[in-house]
Amino acid sequence: MTVTLLPGPAQGTLAAIPSKSAAHRLLICAALGDRPVRVVCPQTSQDIEATVRCLAGLGASIRPWDQGYDVTPLDRAQTAGPCDLDCGESGSTLRFLLPVAGALGAQATFHLAGRLAQRPMGPLTEQLEAGGCEIHLRPRDNVLTIQGQLRPGEYTLPGDVSSQFISGMLFALPLLAGKSTLTVTGPRESASYIDLTLRALARFGVVPRERETGWTVSPHPYRGPALVQVEGDWSNAAPWLCLGALGGESVTVTGLDLASPQGDKAVCAVLARMGARMRATGDRVTAFRGPLRPVEIDARDIPDLVPVLAAVAAAVPGTTTITGAARLRLKESDRLETTARALRALGGDVTVTEDGLVIQGRPRLPGGRADAAGDHRIAMAAAVASGACEGPVTITGAQAVEKSYPTFWRDLRALGKKVEDFLEP
Questions:
Q1: Backbone phi, then psi, for 61, in 5-degree steps?
Q2: Residue 327's domain is classified under what CATH number?
Q3: What is the value of pTM for the model shown?
Q4: pLDDT, tens digit, 9 for 90 and up, residues 74-123
Q5: Which domain holds residue 90?
Q6: Which of 22, 186, 413, 420 is deepest in the core (most CB within 10 A)?
Q7: Is 334 a residue of the active site?
Q8: Contacts for 419 with CB less than 8 Å, ≥ 6 apart
Q9: Which of 47, 304, 375, 411 is catalytic?
Q10: Is position 234 within any domain?
């Protein structure tokens, strides 16, 4: 799918879509619980559906309704047999559920799509194998298998590769028959995502005991509430707030929790440092254009914000530097390279460094034709950049947004942007 955005500002009000990160976590907890749970999640995505499919494959019954999912927990006595789990391209689904499958003693085959088989897994699989599981990855077939029973014990993971490894183990260890420890070495990057996991676990009565270097996790049943609500998504609200900072009267996003552990709420602070005027009232956040200025951005805890913040920086005269983003090379695309390539295609001046980007901003960009590179974040970044372009912006591979935000282009239209789309010939 190719989308063309015509020049003109975006302005208005949108409701935040449900947080994909929170939805994964609450669905997993519900599937591991002791009673049926209604999960309120009014909008889905490819990644959320991947987790739903895999939980169903492990034995949970998940029935969609118009505002989310009704989850009947899996029967642990029925999980030992072979099962096929289709992860699509969702790294969260794979990294969360691989340890869970091990804890359940499931004989599971995970089917992977896109670049998922090439994304880092070694630290996690090594720990699972040391704990009693047998794991085989066949990258050419896009398949990963696990069998065997994970044992209680001492587990150690690095904090600077993927917080998803840590979350996956935190989901799994309460299911084991004895006490375990999880030690995290080095700096904890994307620590807010671990906090989101701990918050989800607490809603189901599971509270790992925190230590200086990690957690002690005792056996504990997941106690499901009758209903849980998925909070609004700061990551997918960020493009709208970035568009508000670039021009027009203002853009407001509703349904956001200012107390959320989601790290991407930092978009407000970064945009404010760049000179945008930000206003938060209740669950409403509004971004107004201000006299924007270049800044230095440490992206260690906000990697998902890098593409859209780079798009804003491309239209801010001066030098903006983004560091701490080396892990973006291992996402759906090499996000440092594809962000730079997309913004250059629209007239931006972007240099890729070892762990980030250097952006020489200009007051306006000419526009042009950018490739989403199969990556939802790149498609959104190009859409944000269109807010600073004098000419049309054409985005190829625009369907990539379906991974996390299927209604993105419709919502962009709702903000007054003229959007033309058509299927590739």
A1: -105, 120
A2: 3.65.10.10
A3: 0.93
A4: 988 777 678 999 999 999 999 999 999 999 999 999 999 998 988 889 99
A5: 20-229
A6: 22
A7: no
A8: 3, 4, 5, 6, 409, 412, 413
A9: 304
A10: no
